[in-house]
Input
Amino acid sequence: MSVEWQKYTLDEVCVKITDGAHNSPKSALVGKPMASVKDLTSFGIDLSNARLIEINEFNKLVKQGCQPIVGDVVIAKDGNSALDTVCTIDYPIDAVLLSSVAILRPDQKLLDSRYLKYYFNCKTVLDYLKSNFISGAAIPRVVLRDFKKANINLPPLKTQKKIAHILGTLDEKIELNNKMNKSLETMTQAIFKSWFVDFDPVKAKIKAIKNKQDPELAAQKVIATVKPFLKQTPEKLRHIAGLFPSKLVNSELGLIPDGWGVKEAIDLIYLNRNSWTIRNHPEEVKYIDLANTKNGCILEIQSFVWQEAPSRAKRKVFLGDTIIGTVRPANRSFSHIFKSTEGLTASTGFAVLTPKLDLYRELIYFSSTLDSNFLRLKVLADGGAYPAVNPRVISDYLIPFDIKIIKNFHDISNYILKKVGINQSENDTLSILRDTLLPQLLSGELKAGLE
Output
């Protein structure tokens, strides 16, 4: 390490180290968001599922310093993910934080915000921090008065910014791929909801017949409004439109298209089918945990040799599986497995839904992750501090079923979602490069381009 690098404590290089609100106002139907550790991601605070609190309570907490500002670094402080998730605040955020999140405000004359984020992401630093500053057996916590004393080695500010730029460029490409993947999933979900929830092509035919118009043309127009279909040939549109009937009938699920059936999801899947044992385990486990899985995106896959893997690293997962968190289901810890990865393993906190036929992959994923299903799971979850549902409950729902429509949905959605797997593979390569460079840059071992 260069002689220009100096050792400080966090307290010496931050103008403020605090946490969010220690009191938790009641949730409100209308108000402003209050984020907790579950809403943190490596790329920022995700407010899509943050609960709302009343405006007057929100304003009180802002005055108390519970709202982060641009340039702050926020890090998980309490719970099983303590110190594991950290991000910078890169734009104004209209939200306040709970005490499970710590807020660090770097002295910009001494410490670059993005450098601090990457410092916390370094494994050797993380091991040091967890060994010295986490207490509590039942619920791990970071005590801030002690955390302020943590040591940090800093190069000159100019070097910090260069290091942050190198690592940040890789993360920006990863984030761009994640956003692209989210867009692809959203488009595919739109098709699913149109065909299997709202039955838009059927309703278009019913309306056209009532108005003495061409029902087939009406259905084609509705199908074509979904973005992925803008490039479909007229022949393809006519074919798919022709598969939908022009009548809705009663069923145990409510109104469904005439001629369709109703299936229980459990009949289309294997639930938690495969688990590692002492006899068949891999040498290396690629581990997915609840904290790093949010809203369809696996933010991080951790690698462990089998002997050092977490005790919950047991569930085998494969291409085409859907994983849904059974603990605190309202947190929406779910994802589809878009690519094959050797040794890929999910926490036992997930229910793993393996389709019995490849044809059902996307049907199971999008039906099991509907907002209505998560609302159902939230209501059914019990357990006090750690509300959870039995894995069987995850698949305890009904699906409108027509094999011809399902086949066409699979063909279209599989084509779109293959691009997600390609992007994820690129992200894996970028992450490996970033994680290789990170300790070398932060130790001063790698100096190329930094002088």
